[in-house]
Every structure is written in C-alpha cells, then in structure tokens.
Amino acid sequence: MPVLVMKFGGTSVATLDRIRRAAKRVGVEVSKGYDVIVIVSAMSGKTNELVGWVNETSPMYDAREYDAVVSSGENVTAGLMALTLQEMDVPARSWQGWQVPVKTTSAHSAARIEEIPSDNILAKFAEGMKVAVVAGFQGVSPEGRITTLGRGGSDTTAVAFAAAFEAERCDIYTDVDGVYTTDPRVESKARKLDKIAFEEMLELASLGAKVLQTRSVELAMRYKVKLRVLSSFEEQSDEAGTLVCDEEEIMESNVVAGVAFSREEAKMTLVSVADRPGIAATIFTALSEAGVNVDMIVQNISEEGRTDMTWSCPVDQVRRAEKAMAEAKSGDVFNFGELLADTDVAKVSVVGIGMRSHTGVAAKMFQVLSNEGINIQVITTSEIKISVLIDRKYMELAVQALHDAFELDKAA
Ligand code: ASP
Ligand code: MG
Question: How far apart (Å, rounded) are the C-alpha atoms in residues 257 and 203?
C-alpha cells in the first residue's frame, strides 16, 4: 500500500470537535487506499502552558525533565486521534516517539532525529491497521530518555516519517491554506503560492515565516519529500494548498517569491575592539558558547587599530550576550570600549531563486525603503535573499512597500 503522511498542527487538534474533523480527512485518504501515518501536535496553547509550568517550577531546569513534561501534550492528542478514528471504524493505533522508536540525539529540547526504523509500524499495517497516529515533536535519546525536537518540531517529525516510509506525500494541515507571499496579517494583498521551491521555503522559514519549522524544510529538501501545506478548516481537493518542491517543477515564478520578517531582533555593537587577526574569532566564539544565535555581522571601518563590531541576534538573547562580553572583558580575553544594544529593530528580507539570474533586486529593495524614508542599519545577502535590519516601527510599512514594489500580489 502507498503510504501518506498527514500532520495536524495545534489549531487543527485544538478541540475534540476539530480532532473529529481531522480524523474525517484521514478517513478520506484511507478510503483512497493509503496506509496513513498521522503526526499530531499538542492542542494549541498546550505546549506553551507546559513550558510555563516548567519555568515556574524550576527556572534553571534540568533539560531532561523539561522534555519529559513538554512532550506530553502530543501524547494526549495522539491517543485521542486514535480513539476518534476507531469510533469511525478506521483501524488505528497511537505511538509515542519511544515506541516507534524515533531515535534522536541527546540534545534535550533541541534533539535531532537520527533514525526511524519502520519495521514496527509496517508490521501493524501488514496486520490490517490503517492508521498509525504518532505523537510529533518527540523521540528517545541513546540513553533511553524522552527528547523533544525544538518548538514547531512536529513538522520535522512529519517530514522525517515521510522520508523513512518513502511516503507518496507529506501533507501539513494547519490554520492557513498555504504558503503566502508574506504574512496576510501584515499585508492584506498577500497571495497564496501554488508552488514554492525548497530553497525559497528554507530561506523564508529561517527568516521568520512561521508556517514550517526550518529543519523540516531542510529534511524535505535533502530527501526530496513532496511537502504540501494546507488548511484543515476547508474542504480540500488534491490541488489545494501550497506544494513545496524542486525548483525544476516550477515553470514560472516571480524574481522575488516572498517577503519575510522577524520582529524580535536586536542589534549589538562592541565599540572599539582591537583590529587584529583572531579578534572576530574570539568574540564570536564567546557569543556562541553563551548560546547566542548571531545572525548578521558587520565589522566597521577601522581607525588607529581599533574597530567596531556589530551583530544582530534575537532580542531575548541580549542579556546572555552582555554577560558573555562582560566576562570576556573582566577575564582579559579581549578589551573593548562599550557594548551598545538596540532592542527596537526588525529584520525584513526578500527571497527568490530568480535573484540568481536577475540583477538589480538589491538596488530596487534599497530604493523602495528609501522612498519610504526607512533607514537601513545592516544588510546581508545570500544568493537568493537580501535582508535588512531596520527600526521595528517601520517593519509593517517596509513589508507592504516591498510586496507592492515587487508586485507579489500578481502571479508570474
Ligand atoms: N507542540 C510543539 C510546539 O508547540 C510542537 C509542534 O506543535 O510542532 O512547539
Ligand atoms: Mg507549527
């Protein structure tokens, strides 16, 4: 039997009624002849609540116990989904991560999937079970402890199962009906894309689009998993939603596929550090050891052997960065004048594989921002994206202006 993976996000399993609706969708696919692997998230809001309980109980928590608690939301929905399917006379069974087993690294709260043996579930399919409902987001470490894959991780569970079972497709059911040119809550003219290339989706996800966990797109790209994002709230046809696929499968596309943004950014500048070999290595090693995810980096012009070093990172990591720099200074690892932190910036990016073959995208982007009187503070580029750091209060304006200028409301 061909295998289909269907993943239901938190809003799609938020109530018993929604679980019933989702189960009906599963029933439709079973009646088409598929063996279905259903991956479920926790009911929406549940994981946040669990994380809150952990933090309240133990602010410097043991990550193994964090995972023990935070993984539990998915256990509930997996069992309920299996029961709902059984009530509909669809032979179904639930599986927690360790039962499959979903083998992961032992990096608690950010584990990576290493292997998913398919024999247990395939044996059940052979016995007549039609649906394996698997708790997303969780696995088991080599030490035999429960792990979780990082927030949004059930997308990654779904893609990993699709790869391991060579599924025909991996359908991600969510509360939006696909991938949009930008967030429709910021730009009402945002348009749903029928198809988007893996590379573009990967950039959009890592630059702030919340539809899919970045890691899941990485995996889909590596294993060529046909990934579809669609709504669990609407009647669906086989062409619904957005297909994330190889760029060869896309005939026509705009130079820019989408505009992404990330609101909670900070810009930090180390003023007056020595400009000599090894200084950048020392600074960024210290930041990385402190768990700061540095994104953009600029080294400013140097004068009399001193320079300023600027980087961006998530706002909630500013404290950590300050602590790491203060420690480096007091420990005489390196010296600097002062450390500035601007916590009112946002990152706006345009993404598109068309940039590989079209020039002038950066110039146009900067012109559009200039027309709106928006100052660009930091710029980074890759082959298929341009990102700028700007004042947070102009973020919406920048997204709208860029969406307009690149005519993303019109299909290619
Ligand atoms: N429930 C987890 C979270 O909220 C995993 C997921 O839904 O993807 O992050
Ligand atoms: Mg999600």
Answer: 11
CA distance 320 to 323: 5
Residue 407, SS3 per DSSP: coil
Distance in angstroms (rounded) separating the CA atoms of residues 336 and 343? 20
Q: What is the pLDDT of residue 303?
A: 87
Q: Which of 317, 8, 291 is nearest to 137 (CA)?
A: 8
CB 240 within 8 A of CB 230: yes
Radius of gyration (C-alpha) of the chain in whole angstroms: 23
| Per-residue pLDDT tens over the stretch 199-247 | 999 999 999 888 999 999 999 999 999 999 999 887 766 668 999 999 9
Cα–ligand 2 centroid distance for 211 (angstroms): 6
Q: Which residues line ligand 1 (CB under 6 A)?
A: 9-10, 41-42, 47, 73, 136-137, 151-155
Q: Domains along the chain?
A: 3-175 (3.40.1160.10)
Q: In whole angstroms, how far apart are CA 268 and each of 195, 313, 323, 378, 390? A: 37, 8, 13, 11, 13
